[in-house]
Amino acid sequence: SQTIHQWPATLVQPVGSPLSLECTVEGTSNPNLYWYRQAAGRGLQLLFYSVGIGQISSEVPQNLSASRPQDRQFILSSKKLLLSDSGFYLCAWSSQGARYIQYFGAGTRLSVL
Amino acid sequence: AQKVTQAQTEISVVEKEDVTLDCVYETRDTTYYLFWYKQPPSGELVFLIRRNSFDEQNEISGRYSWNFQKSTSSFNFTITASQVVDSAVYFCALSGDQYSGGGADGLTFGKGTHLIIQP
């Protein structure tokens, strides 16, 4: 069966520090991978998605970047965090295609102070 | 552009009552997919159901049922005989058909409805 791992679960970082969140998927190959952000009291916003190694599409211009160095690994990064980067970050995977269900990781709660 | 509206920010009912969560969507795609997810306090999103735009048949799964009406662009979710364990934030989401130029494969989410079931 497929599983998705996301870490760390909680992170507190000072403004201006770098960020690296990691997500890995097991039990499947060539998945679509996604990063979403959930701000307090709001819905989920798609940040990045990837259909293959090295292929990243950005949905929202921002202070963040994503990379996919391996088929089942998706990394969310920032060189310098802003206060507005605080939120709940969720990684998800699906089989290729819009019709397929997206399965989510447990999320990372990021607080930028 | 796609849009999902969940007008009910928060609903509070007493256990065993029936409750309906509303979802209205907008899309220009002819083929699209609708989803409901549950987010318990732990934060992880749990998939509940997927419905494609060609299938307007209502679905029932235990105490859960979904009413998809294309004419009103709605995909409502009803919990019958609610239980305290149903307390969570529920999200409705929409995905367009990538082959019809619907854009990203990502889901467009509503802002969620916080459901509180009181014992």
Describe the protein's architecture and organization:
The complex is a heterodimer of chains A (113) and B (119). With 113 residues, chain A is mostly beta strands. Chain A contains no helices and 11 strands. In chain A, strands 2, 4, 5, 6, 9, 10 and 11 form a 7-stranded mixed beta sheet that branches. Chain A has a 4-stranded antiparallel beta sheet with strand order 1-3-8-7, with no helix packed on it. In chain A, a hairpin with an 8-residue loop joins strand 9 (87-94) and strand 10. The model of chain A has no long low-confidence stretch (mean pLDDT 91). Chain B is mostly beta strands and 119 residues long. Chain B is built from no helices and 12 strands. In chain B, strands 2, 5, 6, 10, 11 and 12 form a 6-stranded mixed beta sheet that branches. In chain B, strands 3-9-8-7 form a 4-stranded antiparallel beta sheet, with no helix packed on it. Chain B has a two-stranded antiparallel ribbon with strand order 1-4. The chains are: A mainly beta (113), B mainly beta (119). Chain A binds chain B through residues 32, 34, 36, 41-46, 49, 51, 57, 59, 88, 90, 92, 94, 97-99, 101-107, 109, and chain B through 4, 6, 32-33, 35, 37, 42-47, 50, 52, 91, 93, 95-98, 102, 104-112.
Topology:
The complex is a heterodimer of chains A (113) and B (119).
Chain A: E1 3-7, E2 10-13, E3 19-26, E4 32-38, E5 44-52, E6 55-58, E7 65-70, E8 73-78, E9 87-94, E10 103-104, E11 108-112
Parallel strand pairs in A: 2-11
Antiparallel strand pairs in A: 1-3, 3-8, 4-5, 4-9, 5-6, 7-8, 9-10, 9-11
Chain B: E1 3-5, E2 10-14, E3 19-21, E4 24-26, E5 32-39, E6 46-52, E7 59-61, E8 64-69, E9 74-79, E10 88-96, E11 108-109, E12 113-118
Parallel strand pairs in B: 2-12
Antiparallel strand pairs in B: 1-4, 3-9, 5-6, 5-10, 7-8, 8-9, 10-11, 10-12
